[in-house]
Design goal:
By secondary structure, the protein is α+β, with helices and mostly antiparallel strands. It is built from 18 helices and 13 strands.
C-alpha cells in the first residue's frame, strides 16, 4: 500500500472507500420510497382513524357496531388505568427503563461493532499489504532455470500459469482467514455479465471472482494507484456445495505480472466471526436489558406499593367516614412520613367525629326544644284562646279602645297558632319523622281548591287568578295535603306581592314529570333573592307588613314538602317584572326527575321579549320591511291577552334551573316604566 493512498481512501470514481456497496444504498432508498406517502395522504388517514374510534363513520351502522364491540373490552382497561396510580407508575417505569436500555444497547452495539470492524480492518490491511508486496517481489524476481522453486521461475512459464501459482501460494497462507482473487486489467470496465478480462479471472476457495468483487472497487483500482477497500459479500460457485454468501472486507490493488502487464489482485477477508461475535453480544445485551427492565418494574411496584397502600387505606376509611362510620381509623406503624400522615388523618377523623357529635347533640337539643316548647305552649295557648274568644265575643259592650284591643288579641292569637303549627311541622322535617302519603291525584282539583280559598284575598287586592293548561288531567302520585299546602302558599304570596295585577297558574305534564307554575307581575325579586327566598323567616322587605298573618316559614315548609316528594321548588324573578315559582313533581313516586315540562323563566320575561323583538326585527330586515316600533312595553301583559290565552304546550326538554336566575332591570327602562306608572 502507498502511504499517500490509504486503503480507506475515496476512490477516483467517487465511490466512498468506507466500503458501503451501491446495492445497499439502493435497497435502503427503495425501502424508504415504498413506505413513503404523498404530502396529503398521512393526515387524512389519521383523521379517519381517530374518527373511527370516536364513533365510527356516519351512516355506516355495521362499522359503528364493530367499533362499539371493539371498544367494549377496552373500557375496563381504561377504567383501571385511570383509577390505579400504581399501574401508571409501573407502566411509566417500564417505558422509561425500556427506552434507556434500548438507547444503551444501541450505543454499546455500535461501539462494539465499530471496534470489531476497526480491528478487522487493521489486520486485513496489514495482511493485504504483505501479500501485495510478496506478489510484486515474485513478479520482479530474476529468471532462473534450476532451483527448488521451479514453479516460480519465468523460464518455461507463461503469465497465466504464473498467476495461477501465485493465487494458490498467497491463499495457502490464509487457512480460510482470507481468499485471493486475481483479475486481468480492464475487468472493471466490462459491463456484460460473464465477460473475462485480458488474463481471465482466478480465485481460491471456489470463490466467484466477478460476483464477489464489487464493480465500483474494480473501477477504482483500474483508474488509480494504491490500495482500495470496500465491504461486500463473498459469493461461491456451485462447486462448494452452494455455500451461502457471507459478508467480507475486500482490499484490491493494481500490480504487474512477470511480463510487466498490469493485473488486479484482491484480498477477501470474511467477517463471519465478527458477525457471530456481534450477534452474541446483541443476544447478551437484549437478555440483560429485559432482565433489568423486569427488575426495575418489580422494584417500582414494591416501592409504589409501600406508598400507595396507605393512601388506598386512607381513601377507603374516608369513604366509610363519609358514609357515617365515624369510628374508622387508620392503622399506623413506624415513624416515617406515611405514619405521620396516618396519625394526622386519625386526629382529623377524631376531631371531625367530636365536632359532628357536638353538632348532632346541639341539633337534637334544638329540635327537642322546639318540639317541647310547641307542645307545652298548646295548653296555655288553648286557655288563652278560650279567654280571648270570650273577650272577643263581648267586645260590643266595651269602649272602642278595649274592643279594638280584643280584636288585635284575637288576630295575634291566630298568628300564634299558625306559628306553632309551622314550628311543629319544621321540627318533624328536622327529625326525619315526616311521612308521605302518596296516592294518584289530579292536580287540577288541588289547584281549584287553592284558588277557591285564595279568592277572598284576591278580590280584596283587586287581583284576578287565571289558570292555564287545565284542559287535560294532570295526574301524579303525591300527597294531596302537602301539595295543596305548597300551592296555597305560592298563590297567596303571589296575590299579596302582585300589587293588584293578574296571577297566572299554569299546569303541564310531560314525560315522567308534572309541574305547576305560579306567575305574578308584582315587585319581583332582586338579584340574589331567588336563592334566599326559601330560607326560614326571610323577608324581601323587612319593613313590609304581613297583612295575611304569614309566619315566615311557609316557603321553607313548601321546599321540604317538595323534597319529600322527590321534586323541585324553584324561583325566578326580575325587579319590577314579577316572579314565577315552579313546583315540579315526578309522575310516579320514587322516580328521579330529569327535567320540567315548564321552563323556569316565563316566556313573557323581559329578556325573552327583547329576544323576540330582536328576532322579529331580523326577520323584517330579511324580508325588506321594518316592523313597527310600538306596542305596550310594560312587563305586565294586557288582561285580555291573559284571559284569552291558549295553554302553552309543555316543553319536555326544558331543564330545571338552579333557583337563582334573576334578570337585572336596566336603569333606562326602569325610569321609563316609573314615569308610565306615575311614580
Amino acid at each position: 500500500m502507498q502511504s499517500g493512498t490509504p486503503a480507506s481512501g475515496t476512490p477516483a470514481s467517487g465511490t466512498p472507500a468506507s466500503g458501503t456497496p451501491a446495492s445497499g444504498t439502493s435497497a435502503l432508498s427503495g425501502a424508504s420510497g415504498a413506505s413513503g406517502r404523498g404530502p396529503g395522504g398521512a393526515r387524512p388517514w389519521r383523521l379517519r382513524f381517530g374518527r373511527l374510534f370516536r364513533g365510527g363513520a356516519p351512516g355506516n351502522r355495521v362499522l359503528r357496531l364493530f367499533v362499539r364491540l371493539a371498544r367494549r373490552p377496552l373500557l375496563p382497561a381504561v377504567r383501571l388505568w385511570r383509577r390505579n396510580i400504581q399501574l401508571r407508575v409501573v407502566a411509566a417505569t417500564l417505558l422509561i427503563s425500556l427506552a434507556v436500555v434500548l438507547a444503551l444497547g444501541f450505543v454499546v452495539i455500535a461501539q462494539v461493532s465499530k471496534g470489531l470492524l476497526d480491528a478487522k480492518e487493521e489486520a486485513a490491511q496489514s495482511q493485504a499489504a504483505g501479500g501485495f508486496a510478496v506478489a510484486q517481489e515474485k513478479a520482479n524476481a530474476p529468471a532462473t532455470v534450476d532451483g527448488p522453486d521451479a514453479t516460480d521461475n519465468k523460464v518455461g512459464r507463461d503469465a497465466s500459469t504464473w498467476m495461477n501459482s501465485l493465487v494458490k501460494q498467497l491463499a495457502s497462507g490464509g487457512q480460510t482467514a482470507f481468499e485471493v482473487v486475481a483479475l486481468g486489467a480492464g475487468t472493471g470496465e466490462q459491463t456484460l455479465p460473464g465477460v473475462q478480462g485480458v488474463k481471465g479471472a482466478r480465485a481460491s476457495g471456489n470463490v466467484d471472482p466477478t460476483a464477489s468483487v464489487p464493480l465500483g472497487l474494480r473501477r477504482a483500482v483500474n483508474h488509480a494507484t494504491g490500495a482500495f477497500q470496500t465491504f461486500s459479500e463473498i459469493r461461491y460457485t456451485s462447486g462448494d456445495g452452494k455455500k451461502e454468501p457471507e459478508p467480507a472486507l475486500v482490499i484490491g490493488k493494481r500490480l504487474s505480472d512477470i511480463n510487466g502487464d498490469p493485473y488486479d489482485l484482491y484480498y477477501l477477508f470474511p467477517l463471519t466471526q465478527e458477525e457471530e461475535s456481534l450477534n452474541l453480544i446483541k443476544v447478551t445485551i437484549v437478555t440483560a436489558g429485559m432482565f433489568v427492565v423486569v427488575l426495575l418494574c418489580g422494584i417500582a411496584w414494591l416501592v409504589v406499593r409501600q406508598v400507595v397502600t396507605p393512601v388506598r387505606m386512607a381513601a377507603g376509611i374516608a369513604e366509610r367516614l363519609s358514609a357515617g362510620r365515624l369510628q374508622e381509623r387508620m392503622k399506623v406503624t413506624g415513624e416515617d412520613d406515611i405514619a405521620r400522615l396516618g396519625e394526622a388523618f386519625n386526629k382529623m377523623a377524631q376531631n371531625l367525629q367530636n365536632k359532628i357529635q357536638q353538632l348532632e347533640e346541639l341539633s337534637r337539643m334544638q329540635r327537642r326544644f322546639v318540639s317541647d316548647v310547641s307542645h307545652e305552649l298548646r295548653t296555655p295557648l288553648t286557655t288563652v284562646r278560650m279567654a280571648a274568644d270570650v273577650i272577643h265575643d263581648a267586645r260590643v259592650d266595651f269602649d272602642p279602645i278595649t274592643a279594638r284591643s280584643a280584636e288585635l288579641l284575637a288576630g295575634q292569637l291566630d298568628r300564634f297558632e299558625s306559628l306553632l303549627a309551622d314550628l311543629l311541622e319544621i321540627s318533624r322535617f328536622d327529625a326525619g319523622a315526616a311521612a308521605l302519603e302518596a296516592e294518584p291525584i289530579d292536580l287540577r282539583d288541588v289547584v281549584r281548591r287553592v284558588i277557591d280559598g285564595a279568592e277572598p284575598l284576591a278580590e280584596h287586592k283587586g287581583t284576578r287568578i287565571r289558570v292555564l293548561g287545565d284542559t287535560q288531567p294532570v295526574i301524579a302520585e303525591a300527597d294531596a295535603r302537602r301539595v295543596e299546602r305548597v300551592l296555597r302558599n305560592l298563590v297567596v304570596n303571589a296575590v299579596e306581592h302582585g300589587e293588584g295585577r293578574d296571577v297566572v297558574v299554569r299546569l303541564a305534564s310531560a314525560g315522567g314529570a308534572v309541574a305547576v307554575a305560579v306567575r305574578d307581575y308584582g315587585v319581583g325579586l332582586k338579584p340574589g333573592e331567588a336563592t334566599r327566598v326559601f330560607n326560614r323567616f326571610w323577608r324581601a322587605d323587612p319593613a313590609r307588613a304581613r297583612t295575611t298573618g304569614g309566619t315566615g316559614l311557609g316557603l321553607s315548609i313548601a321546599v321540604e314538602d317538595a323534597r319529600l316528594h322527590g321534586g323541585w321548588l324553584q324561583a325566578w324573578g326580575e325587579p319590577g317584572g314579577g316572579s314565577q315559582f315552579r313546583l315540579t313533581l315526578p309522575r310516579t313516586a320514587d322516580e328521579p326527575l330529569r327535567g320540567s315540562p315548564i321552563p323556569l323563566e316565563p316566556e313573557d320575561s323581559r329578556a325573552n321579549r327583547a329576544r323576540a323583538v330582536a328576532e322579529a326585527q331580523a326577520a323584517g330586515s330579511a324580508a325588506g320591511r321594518t316592523p313597527p316600533d310600538g306596542g305596550d312595553r310594560s312587563p305586565i301583559p294586557p288582561r285580555s291577552a291573559v284571559a284569552g290565552a291558549m295553554p302553552v304546550p309543555a316543553d319536555p326538554t326544558a331543564l330545571p334551573g338552579n333557583g337563582a336566575r334573576v334578570v337585572a332591570r336596566p336603569a333606562d327602562q326602569a325610569q321609563q316604566e316609573d314615569r308610565a306608572d306615575g311614580r
